[in-house]
Design a protein that fits this description.
It contains 5 helices and 19 strands. With 379 residues, the protein is of the alpha+beta class. It folds into 4 domains: 4-50; 62-72 and 298-376, conserved putative lor/sdh protein from methanococcus maripaludis s2 fold; 77-85 and 212-296, Beta Barrel (Elongation Factor Tu (Ef-tu), domain 3), CATH 2.40.30; 93-210, OB fold (Dihydrolipoamide Acetyltransferase, E2P) (Beta Barrel). Strand 15 (313-321) and strand 16 form a beta hairpin. Helix 3 runs antiparallel to helix 4 (156-181). The protein is elongated, with a radius of gyration of 45 Å. The two termini are 86 Å apart. The relative contact order is 0.17.
């Protein structure tokens, strides 16, 4: 076992070395070069903070405030729907026959009463010729009976029979002409041929679908609103519409119809918005977003940046003036709701008094009871 003196010697050496290092560090730290270096670093940090608008640690922060005044604002709702043609129909064959001509093309524009498909007119035309001949014979017989009646040769019964026969033959002629006209299948209104299913040579029976025609000069959007919202909407009211495939430009539309009974499944009221589409840019099936005004309300709105959210609760920092350009901060819990189409603003339905000043900057440095310097922000 080593003597006590030998065990103390290493500890004594370590203690002396520590004292020497401490005095050396103290001498270096208090030297002129070290002081100048620290001063340069402090000035550099201060200049960087000034350039970034950051106040030195421990300084009273300068906050921008916004005067939260209660004001009247339009209430808007935003709903989505698909563009639909103002009217559409399937054109069907009314008589049987073979297709001899397809005059229109699928997805092409057609005028009202323009020919779409021509059925074989041979047999209907023959029926017209036969009916015309029979009607002419009936007319001649009626004229003969009228002449004999004036001479008191023909009886009144013969005259009645000839008159009835002429009317019957004329009705048969009208039917034959109608069947001939039905061989020409026409567009019921101006629009777009959305679907044309048949080719020449195909045989169709009565009721066979020939073509689907869409009227897209006006397009409609159907959306559904609640029972509280429907009472504020009237046909003719303006509507703002954004169509995703056409960019963010707002288009002007109007409410065409408002349902007075809810949909049986959703219990919401359908509202139809109409848009002028004579330039043809809007196509059925495009997704549209509709903005409808449902009246005005008194509300307090503040910039979104003034609200701090913690644990699903919202707060604002209310600044109470304490001098010309200073004040005291208090954190206040508020209820919020988004402002439609204005993501930079938020409504405060409760928790904040009208006329209060709320901080909109330096929120991370603020605590209730802290003193601040005040800078008025834009209204």
């Amino acid at each position: 076992m080593a003597p006590p003196n030998e065990r103390r010697f290493p500890l004594l050496v370590l203690g002396v070395a520590g004292i020497v290092l401490a005095f050396s560090f103290l001498g270096f730290y208090t030297s002129d070069g070290a002081k100048k270096g620290r001063e340069r670093e402090a000035r550099l940090e201060q200049a960087q903070h000034a350039a970034a608008g950051i106040e030195p640690s421990g300084a009273i922060p300068t906050v921008e405030v916004f005067a939260a005044e209660r004001s009247s604002a339009l209430d808007w709702i935003e709903l989505s729907g698909l563009l639909e043609p103002v009217r559409s129909t399937w054109v069907a064959a009314e008589i049987s026959g073979s297709i001899v001509e397809v005059a229109a093309e699928e997805h092409s524009q057609v005028a009202a009463d323009e020919l779409l498909v021509q059925l074989d007119p041979a047999l209907p035309r023959a029926d017209v010729i036969r009916a015309e001949a029979n009607h002419r014979l009936a007319q001649l017989d009626l004229e003969r009976q009228q002449m004999l009646g004036r001479r008191s040769v023909s009886s009144e019964a013969e005259l009645d029979r000839a008159s009835a026969e002429e009317r019957s033959r004329y009705a048969a002629l009208l039917e034959a002409r109608k069947r001939l006209d039905q061989t020409r299948i026409r567009a019921p209104f101006a629009g777009v041929v959305n679907s044309l299913l048949l080719d020449p040579g195909a045989y169709v029976a009565p009721g066979t679908r020939i073509a689907e025609v869409l009227d897209v000069a006006t397009v409609e959007i159907e959306v559904e609103v609640s029972d509280r919202q429907v009472s504020a909407l009237t046909p003719g009211d303006p509507a703002r519409v954004r169509i995703d495939p056409l960019g963010n430009a707002r288009l002007d539309g109007e409410i065409a119809r408002v349902a007075r009974a809810p949909h049986p499944e959703t219990q919401r009221f359908p509202v139809i918005i109409a848009l002028d589409n004579r330039d043809g840019r809007m196509l059925p099936g495009m997704l549209a977003t509709v903005e409808l005004s449902i009246g005005q309300s008194e509300t307090i709105r503040v910039p979104t940046r003034a609200v701090v959210r913690e644990f699903e609760m919202d707060y604002v920092f209310v600044v109470t003036p304490d001098g010309d350009a200073s004040g005291i901060v208090e954190r206040v819990r508020v209820a919020t709701r988004p402002v439609p189409f204005r993501p930079d603003w938020v409504e405060i339905p409760s928790g904040l008094d009208s006329g209060s000043w709320v901080a909109t900057s330096e929120l991370g440095r603020l605590r209730s009871g802290a003193a601040v310097r005040i800078r008025r922000g834009p209204s």
